[in-house]
Each structure stands twice: as structure tokens, then as C-alpha cells.
Amino acid sequence: MSESKVGCKEVMEHICDSLGEELDSPKCVAIKSHLKVCTNCQNYFKSVEKTIEFYKLYNPELPEETHENLMKKLGLD
Amino acid sequence: MDEVELISKAQTGDRQALSELVKKYEKTVYNFSFKICRNPEKAENTMQETFMSMVKSLKQFDGKSKLSTWLYRVVVNHCLMDLRKKKRNFVSIDDDEGEVPEGSLIPDWKNIPDDVTENNELKKILDDAINKLQPDYRVVFVLRDVNGLSTEETAKITDLSVPAVKSRLHRARSFLRNEISKVME
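C-alpha cells for the assembled complex are given below, as produced in the milestone run.
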């Protein structure tokens, strides 16, 4: 597979693998090469990472009452 | 005491060990339930159902998979069943609507407006976006990206193939990213 011609759409279709997987396929090598020179894809890649980062920020606290209710329900209080 | 020992003791009826196991996983189960069910009452109810199911089935647990994997599966089944009953209209992302069209200019998110990150606006935007996402996709996104599970473990929990997990993850990421971009760009 040629490394020279990868469009933005293809990069976007495979961006998941670039974010979370160890892939050395020709397609992914080409994607990485494209990313180095394409500001548009870099911005997209960064914005996807930022989206994930945002969702990691918000963790609901387990309320004490909810914990106590659970232990009661299980007969472990 | 490690987890294998705790499970083994709890299987023989040791209440202290069972209590330790519940305390070890209650936050994870609650957080995950909350992120999938999107409602504090549902999250509490799902957490209780999940641990009641664990207590009931613990004797049959053979340790071939991780206890956390089993707990995640119970939460997913419970929440998805509940959400399907409601038959809410979620945004379909089975087609290419969530994609960014070829040739469009994608701005840098470096300059996020202050009014978005301050107060609770960002949280509301994130909530609205994930609420619109189909629950099946939401589960994959939360397990893989937010909770950091592997693609293989996510596949096991959701009964999907590895390529199906990757495809849903990509579509969920694109959808959420595009929803958030409406206020970032």
C-alpha cells in the first residue's frame, strides 16, 4: 500500500487505532506520516483527545448514603 | 489480602471478605452505572442489583475472567435493558453523519472560550452530548476511553467482536467530538 496518499477522511476513519492501539500496518504508518504534515488532521486528532480528556474529568462521587443503602441491602451493615 | 483470596473466603460465607469485595468495587460500579444510565437513582439501583447478583452467583464464579469484567457485564445488561424499555430517540450514528467532511477546516481547540470551561457550562455540554449518544456506543466509549479498558476486555463485556468495538469507538468519539465542537469553535 502506498504511503504517499492518505486523505483527511481516511485519517479520521482510523484515528481510533492511532489513539489507542499499537499498529504498524502500512495504513497506520501512512496515517502517522500524514498527521505530521497536515494541520487539519492534527487539530482533529487533538480535539478527539481533548474530548476524551473532558469526559475523564467528571467522575460522580459515591454519596455516603448510597454506600450505606447498599451495605444495608446486602446485609453487610 | 489479595482479590483471589477475598473471593475464595467470600465463597465460603466469610461476611468480612464479602464486605471488602463490595467496598473494593462499589465506586467503580457506581461511576460506571452513572455514566451509562445517566441518572443518580438509576445508578444506585443498578449498583444494588449488580452486587445482589454478585452475592447470589459468587459461589459459581470460577475466576476464569476478572471479577471487574463480570461486574461491568451486569451493569451493561441492566442499564441497556432499562434504556431500551424507554425507547428514547437517540441520534443514529450508524451512517457517516457524524464525520467531518473532507476538505473542511478544523480549528485548533487551544483557545477554548473561558465561559465554556468556567462555571458548569462545559459539564452541561458534555452531559447533553453523551445523552444524545446511542447507549450501545456510550458503553464502548466509557469502557474503552474513560475507564481505560482494553479493546479485548471491552469486546468481552459487550459481546461484540474486536473490530465492532473499534468501529463503535471511532463513531462515538467522532460524534462526541463534533457535538462539543459546536461550542469550541
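Chain B touches chain A through 49 residues (CB under 8 Å). DSSP finds nine helices and no strands in chain B. Further analysis is deferred to the final report.
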